[in-house]
C-alpha cells in the first residue's frame, strides 16, 4: 500500500485534520509539529489554538501560561470554561464567570455544559440545560470530574456553594427518599446508582445528580 502523506491533502483539509488532533492529544500534535516546517506553522495557527483542549495537557508537564493566553485569545472552550470557573468560584464574580462558562457550554465543551447546568439548577432552580444530556452522558462527565478534578487548579471560594448545598440537603433531598417512583434501598448510599435503580423519575434522577455535583465540588 502506498504511503499517504498529510501534506498531500488540500491546505484547508490539513488545517482541519490538525485541529481535530489538537482536541484530543498534545503528544500527537507535538509529533506533527516536528514533521516539517509547514506542519509547524499549521500547529501554531489560530484555528489550532481555538481547538486545543487544555485538559488533555500531560499532567507531568507544567502548563505554560502563554499556552492558556493564546488559547483563550482565540476562543478555546476549555480556557473559556477555566476562566469562568475562576471568576465564579474563586472571585465570586457570578455574572461574568457564568457568562464564560455558558459560552464554553454552547460550543459543546461537556465539562462546561455540566457545570453550567448544575450551577443554574443549584443557584436559580433553572433546568433549561438538563435537556441537553442523557443519563449516560451526565454520568460519564461526573465520573471524569470525580477522577481528574475540575482543572482550575486552585481552591475555590465555596461559601455560596456550601449555603446552597445545605439548602439542598434540608429542603430538596428529602423528596428523593419519599418519592414513590421506585423503591429506595436503604443499604446503599443515596447517590449510588443502585439506591433506586435506573427506573427513578426525572425529578429523582436530577436530585441525585445535583447531590453528586455538590459532593465533587466541595471535595475536589
TrEMBL record:
Residues 56-124 form the At2g35280-like TPR domain. This is At2g35280-like TPR domain-containing protein. It comes from Brassica carinata. It holds the Pfam family TPR_27.
Amino acid at each position: 500500500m502506498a504511503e499517504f502523506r498529510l501534506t498531500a491533502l488540500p491546505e484547508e483539509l490539513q488545517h482541519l485534520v490538525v485541529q481535530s488532533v489538537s482536541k484530543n492529544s498534545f503528544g500527537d500534535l507535538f509529533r506533527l509539529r516536528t514533521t516539517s516546517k509547514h506542519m509547524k506553522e499549521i500547529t501554531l495557527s489560530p484555528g489550532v489554538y481555538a481547538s486545543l483542549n487544555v485538559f488533555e495537557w500531560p499532567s507531568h508537564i507544567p502548563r505554560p501560561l502563554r499556552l492558556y493566553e493564546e488559547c483563550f485569545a482565540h476562543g478555546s472552550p476549555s480556557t473559556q470554561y477555566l476562566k469562568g470557573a475562576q471568576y465564579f468560584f474563586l472571585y465570586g464574580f457570578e455574572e461574568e464567570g457564568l457568562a464564560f462558562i455558558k459560552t464554553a457550554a454552547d460550543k459543546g465543551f461537556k465539562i462546561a455544559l455540566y457545570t453550567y447546568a448544575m450551577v443554574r439548577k443549584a443557584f436559580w432552580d433553572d433546568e433549561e440545560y438538563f435537556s441537553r444530556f442523557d443519563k449516560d452522558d451526565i454520568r460519564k462527565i461526573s465520573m471524569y470530574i470525580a477522577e481528574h478534578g475540575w482543572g482550575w487548579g486552585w481552591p475555590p471560594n465555596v461559601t455560596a456553594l456550601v449555603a446552597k448545598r445545605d439548602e439542598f440537603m434540608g429542603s430538596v433531598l428529602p423528596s428523593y427518599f419519599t418519592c414513590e417512583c421506585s423503591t429506595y434501598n436503604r443499604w446503599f448510599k443515596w447517590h449510588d446508582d443502585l439506591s433506586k435503580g435506573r427506573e427513578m423519575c426525572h425529578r429523582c434522577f436530577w436530585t441525585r445528580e445535583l447531590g453528586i455535583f455538590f459532593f465533587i465540588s466541595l471535595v475536589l
